[in-house]
Amino acid sequence: MRLLRFADDARLRPATPLLPLLVASLAAMLCQFSFAQNFTSSITGIVTDPTSAAVAGAKVELKNMATNDVRDATSGNDGSYQFNNLIPGTYEVDVTASGFKTFSRLNLILTANTNASVNVPLQIGGTEQKVEVTASSVLLDTETANNSVTMDTQLIESLPNSTRNPLNFVFAVAGTTIAPGGQTQKSGSLDQMSSNFGINGGRTGDEAILIDGAPSQAVDWGGLMVSPLQDSVQEQQIVQNTYDAQYERAGAGIVTMITKGGTYQFHGEAYDYLQNSFLNANSWYNNEYDIGRQPFKQNQFGGNIGGPILKRWKLFFFGGYEGLRQPNTQSTGLITVPTQAERNGDFSQALNANGSLDTIYNPFSTVTANNNSGYTRTPFAGNVVPANLMNSVGQKIVNLYPLPNRAGTGPNDLNNYYAQGAGDTFNDKMDTRVDWEQSTAHRLFVRWSDRFRQDVSVPCFFCNGADTGVNQTNNGFQGVINDTITPSPTWVINSFFSYSRWKETHIAQGYGAASASTIGLANSLFQAPLLPTIYPDNGYSSLSNGSYEQYIRYSSTAEVNVTKQLSRHTLKFGANFDVQMINSISEAAVSFNFGSDLTSCDPDPNGGACDALNYSSTLTGNAIASMLLGTSDGGGQGINIDPAMSLHTYGTYIQDQWRVTPRLTINAGLRYENQRPATERFNRLMYFNANVLNPISAQVEPLLGRPVYGEFQYASANNRYAWPPDNTNFAPRMGVAYKITDRFVARAGAGIFFLPPSAMITFDNPGEY
Question: Can you give the pTM of this predicted structure?
């Protein structure tokens, strides 16, 4: 529900300088910069007389109808003109020439990354006479091989969107695939998950997501640093193949979002979108097990406003805020916990699924069978574990379980516990943008997007530190500065600078409520002050999530793009420098596995004794009995470093857009890309060097008759790289566009693209590369 929307004529109200402090703050952040790409467009055309002959020297004026920004050009000897580095928007073209009527075409909608043609047919007459075309039209890209789908403001506002993340619209485009394993959250609230998709068969995360030309993806798995608000997006474009040489590290398409800027009129709105369980149906799972409908409520609210700051300086602003409050009810699902008798060591009523007694054997009675064909064990009398054999740590672990609160199913009393609890999702986000049309030769804008809170908290069901849930906190921001200078009608210099940061934290729900000392183990033995993670067999629920993880990601870049207009050629060239980093903390307590094998005895059909090769049995032994006895059958404790990884990339390109004829355009470009190998701040990387002599070579060479090479080594000041560098990454690109009619364009193209090394710089196994 939109509560309020308004538009006001700025000429009737004084403008107030609201944002100079924001501009100064953003400038202070530019000690580091982030990856950027050129998202601007161009308009070209030919001015002709009634005989279709070229008209040279015609004055062409292009005006942005929202900001009144004006560009001037003069048609050449062949009648052609061109305007480069145009921001997306609605434009007006006015053409005057001596002896001809003035031509005016309004409401030309120019989308991002579009090279459009607007040909001008002049009519004989005086310049005081005017031919005016007012019909609105979206300009078609007629001069590149890029295949794209563009969504404008009206479409973005009209389509349904459950969480109002603009990237959800990517899934409405044919050829978009969900990440393997269901990791994409089309209905989730976390910005980072909204980039987890593939385009046209490309691998997930290999697309590039650009916001006002600057990327918003992390270096490791491509998670989104920050997403703008849906109502802050003027336009979203999905390029399903990329042939222009300016694009780097994107082999699976480009998604470009252009944010809104202010205009001469004030525009604003306030809204609230509410969902609740009043009209929601119960889930199939709840109906199946006679569980009532869970409460649900989602409240997404916010507003935005844009307009002039100082009209005479052509200084405009746009800002928006959005909050999400989603209290929710979560459940354990149907799980199995030990009964009170089992907690006391009494398994006399413990049955198997077939109704037979689940016999418990004493692991400390294991001896060699008389015929030496295997081993044998003695069952506990009465199927009860004696108190004097119980392990104090094991007892404390078992007592972390709650008691059953519902009747179990089957002879073995499964699914005897169910609980519900309250969880919460809190989001707060904002976007701010300031545009300054300093002159016809200089345009500048700054944008700041911030998700200063995206928290997901889970309920406690056991509430003693043994819950398996994980609370998550996220915050991140992106600052962008775009500067466009037009020193002459044939030269345009466009620069991007941006800086992004995203901090992600995963904390076990039981953090602070319990630790290893709670069950009688020393906290000093483990990295994280948490309960060990317990994994039992026989269908019993696991306990705890003994991990603490924090990942801080940075992306910094500077990029310059230059355009030179010639008669039939448009030359583009530029360079970029990227720095991307991730600092990781991944700490955990120990994990213990408890199975039935150490309290079971699987009879050997040949000798009657327990099978020497397989103690495990589906009809004897019990994980809770093994736990009480302190006989774990596995587990581990990992000690991880806290790596501080960084990756630098250099790139440069040159591209020629050659208008061979008014209908045929050829784009040819070459990109050079050098993605330097990752480094770790303190050289704690380890890698296998196959070229050095192994330390054992001297001992085994007499036996093998040859030396043995290869050993693991740590990085050093002389060799810091995680993998060998590659300095020969040249990427040619070629595209052809042929305009069959004004609304029908045939395209073809090919290129080489170098993908980001996301699989090589990840937090999955820190310190091992």
Answer: 0.80
